[in-house]
Amino acid sequence: MLRKSLHRLAGLGLATLLTLPGLAAAQAAPAAGNWPAKPVTLVVPFPPGGSTDVLARLFAAKLGERLGQSVVVENRPGANTGIGAAAVARATADGYTLMITGAPTFTTNSLLYPNLGYDPIKSYEYVAIAGSAPFVILTNTQSGLATVNDLVTKSKAEPLSFGSFGTASTPHLAGEYLAQRTGAKLLHVPYRGSAPAMTDLIGGQIPLSIDTLVAALPQMRAGKVRAVALTSAARSSLVPDVPTVNESGVAGYDFITWYGIVAPKGTPQPVVDKLSTQVREMLAEPQTLEKLKELGFDPFYADPKAFRGRVEQELERNAGVIKAAGIKVE
């Protein structure tokens, strides 16, 4: 009888302890101090060699040094980043699977593709935005266009074609948004990549193109194309003399490609916070800043709250642009 009573009291004591504030939660979500205890996988939903992959490998090396564990890049391309993004959404939420990808994974795909296998808002814990790169509006030397006002004025008299890689890509949406904000008459010409669009621009087959600054810089420096304006809100340190569309009279215009790091929904908050802090500190290192500039990226940090806010804002903006332009993907 005495033994049964002691067992009952012990059980009540354990139940009482587990109801103390924070204790149950602490048992469910280990402290960030215990993480990482093994290598971390950083999924890149693109093939090796592209800009996102290059950035991911830089960050993997830097984060690995800071965390004291290997960060292994795993390429999972396909379905316009959908294969990798869906795999990460389904992964165990323990902090050992992360993803780095560009803005369209979160701010465009869900507006165009049904049955994605992930939800840009509900499937992830946002860790940080960890870099950005502007696009640049380009013209050839025969067009006579030098400013945003030039192209707007000329296009209203005669529609101008502009090239970009792909349909519903960020540079395509940037061009459509410019037209919607200014009344310019712009006709989109989709290309399979930057190289064929650049060839046609230089050859005079199209008067305008919107491309990444990284891809355009060699031709700009060679004097084969002219930079009309950057699509970012602020100028780039890579080309400080090139104005922005925003400066050219289109207030609030800001179309960039940024790179976000996320974890599966339910990843413990202490792990998310630790990761975000490490990214912020990493981006403040002079060596990292120099390497980013060398690769053509601008340092750009946003914490989890700001990251989520940007996704929500760009989803709303892009939905309006896509609807007004009647963009559809077959």
TrEMBL record:
Query: Cross-referenced InterPro entries, in alphabetical order?
Result: BUG, Bug_dom1
Check the record and name the Pfam families matching this protein: TctC (PF03401)
Keyword list, A-Z: Signal
Q: Which residues form the signal peptide?
A: 1-24
Q: Which CDD domains match?
A: PBP2_Bug_TTT
Record family assignment: Belongs to the UPF0065 (bug) family.
Q: What is this protein called?
A: ABC transporter substrate-binding protein
**Species:** Bordetella genomosp. 1
Species lineage: Bacteria, Pseudomonadati, Pseudomonadota, Betaproteobacteria, Burkholderiales
